[in-house]
Amino acid sequence: MSKVALHTLGCKLNFSETSAVGEQFMSRGFGVVEFDEIADVYIINTCTVTENADRECRQIVRRALRQNPDAFIIVTGCYAQLRAGEIAAIEGVDAVLGSNEKFKIFELFNDFEKQELSCIYTTPTNKLEEFNSAYSTDADNRTRAFLKVQDGCDYKCSFCTIPQARGKSRSAPVEEVVDNFKTLLDNGYKEIILTGVNVGDYNYNGINLFNLLKSILMVEGDYRIRISSIEPNLLTDEIINLVSDDPRMCNHFHIPLQSGSAEILKQMQRRYKRSDYENLIRKIVTKINDVGIGVDVIVGFPGETDEHFNETYNFLKELPIYYLHVFTYSERPDTKAIDLPGTVDFAVRKKRNNMLRILSAKKRSEFNRQMVGNKLNVLFEHQEQNGIMKGFASNYVRVKSTFNPKMVNKFSPVDIAGADGEICFTEIKNDIKKITNLAG
Questions:
Q1: Which among 29, 120, 382, 403 would be 20 to 30 A from 429, CA to CA?
Q2: Radius of gyration (Cα) for the chain, nearest Å?
Q3: What is the extent of the structural domain holding 334?
């Protein structure tokens, strides 16, 4: 049996698409193996948001070739769409596929024989109009499934290259989404994560994200739905109320902020004001019990002074949020931000990143402590480590407990007995100390 290995960089949308690519190979008799194992074909699905994308891509290619120097190496994804020529120049790369072409591998190649020169197949960004369906399959070794409902972006944030890599915003037909959702349930998944470049911008023939959610929720079954990330200006009262009213909707939002400085937000060309964001967060925590809120933030954007950064830091410190995803600004070709004055020294960027990561750890620890004494509905995962199993609650709190196979991949109401930094734990047989020591 020929074997394929897949590696994903970046967002949940990329994971769903990698899984769809893996399914193409499985349906043609390939076995899917881990990336550090010997394979005949290695596929690297790249991300343009990743810092040092070129260096990271080279390292991963070398990793694959160490396993099998004769393997066929395919690099695809957003970075491949934007910098195909650079990737093709990497020694050992056989094919570079753009955003559309990753779904057409078997149309492009009759075999996977090593090439002397790299092949490049990309569709011009202004012609990226197809919607390619993607969702988790057996090629994705996860207990929670990703379901792609939207692609592309019409926003013009000054730091972002995603619209160049993904094209204009487009959405999957409602019927297709519902059918794929049912397939995931039939495959045994209990939590479905709706993904896209800009999920909140979902619009198919006038049907918006709220209407889509209502259509999905008409499906009977034991499941819950999580929204991967949603822009603050697109998180409507209808969606907030739906999450509050229907327990099948996870009480968790990931809402990008990017900066807590009004001046920097304007330079970033974001579509909301700092006050809008704060009002939204406080509205959510008022309406939804134990809601977990994650935040994206960028440090070191051109022109960000110490004063601007302190505004962001203090703004986030006072907000009732759960955790931060902190990104260090890095220059991207063909963006407006690259020409802005006020370049921030790399050492300063790193320092600010560290400060916000520490703040995030404090926020997470504080939120977890607030869960002690509560009963949370946890979906425990298949993995077992030293007699411990872990899972996520609806609000994205990570929970560990002593392993019980009867609770795996089932929604289990558990009492939170304590919190240990980034994770909460249950009291099983009054042996909290053992649980903590084992799972660390």
A1: 382
A2: 22
A3: 255-370
